[in-house]
Amino acid sequence: MEGADKEEIMKRCIEMLDEMMGDITVPRNIRRSASEVKNNLLNGDESLAVRVARVISDLDELTTSLNIPSHTRALVWSIVSQLETISVEE
Length: 90
What we know:
The chain is mostly helical. The protein has a single domain (3-89), classed as de novo design (two linked rop proteins). The chain contains four helices and no strands. It has helices at 3-22, 28-42, 48-63, 70-89. α1 (3-22) packs antiparallel against α2 and α1 runs antiparallel to α4 (70-89). The protein is globular.
């Protein structure tokens, strides 16, 4: 996978996280977690593969929350599936 493809996937994932953070029907703690995940994804101190693996783990934990709305859970799974294409390539 080329660097431009990875950047496009990252951009889409960031947009989906922004959508989740802006959705007032999503509980505040879930929006806060989405913000932390976004910051971890953008943190350039580690390699892309490490950041993606950490974010996938964090998002997986987020889906187990009892108060996450079903539409948000589906969005999280979509983000995870996009990010998995990056982590497999690294």
